[in-house]
């Protein structure tokens, strides 16, 4: 995948209870239509997830996750064979089963391998790219706010340890995600956004997912439905900080932000 220009990853939730678009795309036809729309708007990756990680979301079994995910991702791959797909899962068995059925996909793991001890070896066996997200805590408490000595240094230590383990397991393609909103206070999230370029020391692609998150709508005292302008501003700041991939609900607006960012870079040459 060419990351010389930032890429937009479109979010396709097929769960009934995701925080922003839950229930909209549980039907295969609706999900495929949404994928088609995002591709037309310029998405470079489609990220499919079947388990909500919002605060208070139900704990879904592996069987239920696969029941939700497989029909949709199978049809999306069939209809759009050239678009890279990503599986938003923290379960190695889900990654293994889906990739066995539909072919290579990126694995987007919100737990950074901390929820499933077999994840790293599975990714190495599959030979697919892996999105390593920072998280603090477990499924039960990951949305509680921990204390950091220095949020950048603490996350950098996490990345350093996990990247070393991934490399030892044989994983070759790793993308870093600092995990906006997962075990971070409002101030932590803005500190991350302000110092995003610190993660460039790893010389790995950086993914940013701030789309319609509470760090935006709570700061403005609005709701997620009215947070698209704030999302676009935050995405632009992330691009200026070195983000290589923007994970978003609203593809067109993110693509426009990338185009303006690229024009800005061109004018500086």
Task: Characterize the structure shown.
The structure is a single chain. The chain has 269 residues and is of the alpha/beta class. The protein is 43% helix and 13% strand. It has an eight-stranded parallel β-sheet with strand order 6-5-4-3-2-1-8-7. Helix 5 links the parallel strand 5 and strand 6 (174-177). The longest helix is centred in the middle third of the chain and has 19 residues, at 151-169. The mean pLDDT is 93.
Number of strands: 8
| Sheet with the most strands: spatial strand order | 6-5-4-3-2-1-8-7
Mean pLDDT across residues: 93
Structural class: alpha/beta
Which spans have pLDDT < 50 for at least 5 consecutive residues?
Answer: none
Give a quick account of the main beta sheet: strands, pairing sense, barrel closure. 8 strands, parallel
Radius of gyration: 17 Å
The helix content, as a percent range, equals 40-55%
Per DSSP, the total helix count is 9
Shape: globular
Terminal-residue CA separation: 24 Å
Question: Helix and strand string, N-terminal first?
Answer: EHEHEHEHEHEHEHHEH
Topology:
Elements: E1 7-13, H1 28-40, E2 45-49, H2 62-79, E3 85-88, H3 92-102, E4 106-109, H4 119-126, E5 130-133, H5 151-169, E6 174-177, H6 186-194, E7 207-208, H7 214-220, H8 228-240, E8 245-248, H9 251-267
Parallel strand pairs: 1-2, 1-8, 2-3, 3-4, 4-5, 5-6, 7-8
Helix pairs in contact: 1-2, 2-3, 3-4, 8-9
What's a quick, concise take on this entry?
This protein has 269 residues and is of the alpha/beta class. It is 43% helix and 13% strand.
């Amino acid at each position: 995948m060419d990351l010389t220009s930032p890429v937009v990853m479109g979010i396709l939730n097929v769960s009934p209870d995701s925080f922003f678009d839950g229930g909209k795309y549980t039907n295969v036809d609706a999900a495929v239509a949404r994928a088609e729309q995002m591709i037309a708007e310029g998405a470079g990756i489609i990220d499919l997830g079947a388990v909500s990680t919002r605060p208070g979301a139900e704990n879904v079994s592996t069987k239920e996750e696969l029941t939700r995910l497989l029909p949709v991702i199978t049809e999306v791959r069939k209809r759009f064979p050239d678009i890279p797909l990503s599986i938003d899962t923290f379960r190695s068995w889900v990654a293994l089963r889906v990739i066995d059925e539909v072919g290579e996909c990126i694995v987007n793991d919100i737990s950074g391998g901390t929820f499933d001890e077999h994840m790293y070896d599975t990714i190495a066996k599959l030979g697919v790219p892996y999105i390593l997200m920072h998280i603090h805590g477990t499924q039960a408490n990951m949305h509680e706010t921990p204390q950091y000595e220095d949020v950048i240094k603490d996350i950098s230590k996490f990345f350093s340890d996990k990247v070393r383990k991934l490399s030892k397991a044989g994983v070759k393609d790793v993308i870093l995600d600092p995990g906006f909103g997962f075990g971070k206070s409002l101030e932590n999230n803005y500190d991350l956004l302000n110092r995003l370029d610190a993660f460039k020391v790893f010389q790995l692609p950086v993914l940013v997912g701030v789309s319609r998150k509470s760090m935006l709508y709570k700061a403005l005292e609005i709701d997620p439905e009215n947070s698209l302008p704030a999302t676009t501003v935050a995405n632009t700041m992330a691009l200026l900080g070195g983000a290589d991939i923007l994970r978003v609900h609203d593809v067109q607006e993110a693509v426009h932000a990338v185009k303006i960012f690229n024009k800005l870079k061109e004018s500086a040459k």
